[in-house]
Amino acid sequence: RRTIPNSDAATLRRIRIRTSVVRVALGALVCALAAGAFLSARDLEPRASELLPGGRSGVLVIDLSLSIVNDDYADVHAVLERLIKSGNPMGLVVFSDVAYELLPPRSPSNELRPLLRYFTPRGGRLPPNPWTPNFQAGTRISAALDLAYGMLRRDRVSPSSIVLVSDLETAPADYTGLGKILRRLRSSSASVRVVALSPSSDALTFFGGILGEQVFVDPVEPNTGELRPLEVSLRGETPLALLVASGLVLFALAAYEGFAGRLALPAGSGWRGT
C-alpha cells in the first residue's frame, strides 16, 4: 500500500477517525437510499391490461354456472387462448356452487388447450361439456377464490396471480364470504385480474369497490388474427419517489467521493510505496 511518510502520525489520528466516521455514515446513507429506490421500483404496478402482470404464474378461475350464457363463452375461449400463448405455468379452478381444482399451480399452460373445444361453437352451438346441470346450479364465487388462493399458498407460488372469469353474480348468502376473501386478496401479494362476462353494474361496483377498478381486464377479442403478445410495461404516471431516491443516491455517492475519498498525489511528489 502506498503512503505519505510522516514522523508524527499520531497528530493525524483524530482526522483519520473523523474521516472513517464520515465514510461509514455516507456508506450507510447510500445503502439506505439504494434500498428506498428499490422499494419504490417495486411499487410500480404493471399495466392493468395484462392478464398475468409481469409474466406471473397463477391460477385461472372459470365460472361455469348456468348464469353464463353461450355468447360469453367466446370470451372464455379468448382468455384460454391468451394464457396458452403466454406460456406461463397456470393452475385451474372451475366452479359454480362447488369449486374444483382441475390443474395444480405451475402446470404447463398447454394443459389448458383441451378445454378450448368446450368453448368453441360448432354450427352455431357449443359442443356437449362434462359439466352436468347439477354441477352448474348455483354460484359461490367465494369458494372458488378461496380455493385458488389456498392452492397458491400450498404450493408456495410467488409472485402469483389469480385470473377470475365470471359474470360476478353470486348467491345472496355468499356476499359476506366473498367480501372477506376479496379483502384478503387485496392485502396479499397475489395479483388479481377479473374478466367480467356481461356483468351488472352492481357487481362491478362490488368488486371494484374492494379491489379497485384496475382489476378489470378485457379478454383478447377472438377471430382478430394473430394474438398480441403480452407486454410488460409500467403505469403512465411519473415515478417521482423513484426519481428522488435515485437522485439522492447519486448525491450521496458524490459526497462520499468529495469528503471521504483517499488523498491522491501525483508521481514524484516525495511519497513512497510500502
Task: Describe what you observe in this structure.
- Helix 1 (13-42) runs antiparallel to helix 7 (240-260), helix 4 (141-154) runs parallel beside helix 5 (175-186) and helix 5 (175-186) runs parallel beside helix 6 (201-211).
- The protein is of the alpha/beta class.
- It is elongated.
- It has 7 helices and 7 strands; from the N terminus they run E-H-E-H-E-E-H-H-E-H-E-H-H-E.
- It has a 5-stranded mixed sheet with strand order 4-3-2-5-6, with helices on both faces.
- It has helices spanning 13-42, 73-86, 133-136, 141-154, 175-186, 201-211, 240-260; strands spanning 2-3, 57-63, 90-95, 99-107, 160-166, 191-196, 272-273.
- 39% of the residues lie in helices and 14% in strands.
- Strand 5 (160-166), helix 5 and strand 6 (191-196) form a beta-alpha-beta unit.
- The termini are close together.
- It has 2 domains: 11-44 and 239-269; 53-215, 3-Layer(aba) Sandwich (Rossmann fold), CATH 3.40.50.
Instruction: Give the topology string: H per helix, E per strand.
Output: EHEHEEHHEHEHHE
* Unreliable stretches: 43-49, 221-237
Main sheet: which strands, in order across? Answer: 4-3-2-5-6
pLDDT averaged over residues: 77
Number of contiguous helices: 7
Shape: elongated
CATH architecture level-2 label of the largest domain: 3-Layer(aba) Sandwich
Tell me the Rg in angstroms: 29 Å
Query: Strand fraction band?
Result: 5-15%
Largest sheet report: 5 strands, mixed
